[in-house]
């Protein structure tokens, strides 16, 4: 997931990432500040830090740390579900003056362990093949985890659909019984009315 969004200084912005359990998530970000004179975003925002907070689906805080204007954060999920990743600038200016516009570039990678190409090139061919094989095995494990997580979600959704269909069926039965009861009551009331008026 690679994106960018605009934010005010000290304004908190959050994204939700659906992550399987026991999965490494790596996030890279870069902050740019709006320059009123150049009418453009500067390449960097020196002196500006980002406070990164990550909470699990059970609202446990997995990460809460202050970084610089550009950085990398990572966390490992211990259970599957929607994890909330929030970023907020730590402007040192007063709240009344901290109105500058920021552009935050964010790249989130789920379940990836990056190969360090310089390390790979420094090793001999056998070690390079070994390293690449380990990387491939890690990716296979990640794909397997993702499939299991999607299977769990599909099963949960199917159960919910079946329960909803069952509830709809019972509601239709109840409605039918109510309509039949009202019909019988109306027929009986009309019959009694006609008998009382000696029309039958």
From TrEMBL:
PROSITE patterns associated with the record: GOLD
Membrane topology according to the record: Single-pass type I membrane protein
Residue spans crossing the bilayer: 168-187
One GO CC term, this protein: endoplasmic reticulum membrane
Record's keyword terms, sorted: Endoplasmic reticulum, Membrane, Signal, Transmembrane, Transmembrane helix
Main location: endoplasmic reticulum
Domain (GOLD): residue spans on this chain: 12-110
Compartmental location: Endoplasmic reticulum membrane; Membrane
Annotated family: Belongs to the EMP24/GP25L family.
Protein's name according to its UniProt entry: TMD11 protein
Species of origin: Bucorvus abyssinicus (Northern ground-hornbill)
Species classification: Eukaryota, Metazoa, Chordata, Craniata, Vertebrata
Gene (name only): Tmed11
């Amino acid at each position: 997931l690679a994106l960018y969004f605009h934010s005010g200084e000290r304004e908190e912005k959050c994204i939700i990432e659906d992550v399987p359990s026991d999965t490494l998530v790596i996030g890279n970000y870069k902050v740019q500040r709006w320059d009123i004179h150049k009418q453009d975003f500067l390449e960097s925002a020196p002196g500006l830090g980002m406070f990164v907070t990550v909470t699990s689906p059970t609202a446990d805080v997995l990460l809460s740390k202050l970084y610089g204007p550009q950085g990398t954060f990572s966390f490992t999920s211990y259970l599957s579900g929607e994890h909330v990743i929030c970023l907020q600038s730590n402007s040192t200016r007063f709240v009344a003056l901290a109105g500058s516009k920021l552009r935050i570039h964010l790249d989130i990678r789920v379940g990836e362990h990056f190969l360090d190409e310089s390390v790979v090139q420094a090793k001999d061919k056998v070690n390079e093949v070994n390293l690449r094989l380990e990387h491939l095995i890690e990716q296979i494990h990640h794909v397997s985890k993702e499939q299991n997580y999607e299977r769990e979600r599909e099963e949960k959704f199917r159960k919910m659909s079946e329960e909803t269909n069952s509830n709809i069926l019972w509601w239709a039965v109840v409605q039918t019984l109510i309509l039949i009861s009202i019909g019988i009551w109306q027929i009986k009331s009309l019959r009694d009315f006609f008998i009382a008026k000696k029309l039958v």
